[in-house]
Write a structure and sequence with these properties.
two-stranded antiparallel sheet; 84 residues; mainly alpha
C-alpha cells in the first residue's frame, strides 16, 4: 500500500479488481451451501441450500442487502425448526 499508494492503477487491473469481492464471497459461501459433513448435498433437506436460494431470490427482486440477509437467516431458522 505504501509503495503503490500514489501510483495510478492501470485500467485493466482496476477492472479485474472489481471481481475480487464477489469471487471471494462465493469461495467462502458456496461450499457451505452445497456440502454437509464434507459431502455434496443437493437434497430438499439441505436447509442451507434452500435458505440460500431464498436469499438469492430476495436479492434479485429487491436489491436490498439488509432484507436479503434477514430473509436468508429467517428462512434458515424456520427450515431448521421444521426439519428437526
Amino acid at each position: 500500500m505504501l509503495l503503490l499508494g500514489e501510483r495510478e492503477i492501470p485500467p485493466i487491473l482496476r477492472s479485474a479488481l472489481r471481481f475480487v469481492p464477489p469471487s471471494t464471497f462465493s469461495a467462502i459461501v458456496l461450499p457451505e451451501l452445497f456440502t454437509h459433513g464434507g459431502t455434496l448435498n443437493l437434497s430438499v433437506e439441505n436447509t442451507r441450500l434452500l435458505a440460500g436460494a431464498l436469499a438469492v431470490i430476495v436479492a434479485w427482486r429487491t436489491r436490498n442487502v439488509l432484507l436479503t440477509i434477514a430473509a436468508g437467516m429467517g428462512g434458515l431458522w424456520l427450515l431448521q425448526a421444521l426439519f428437526r
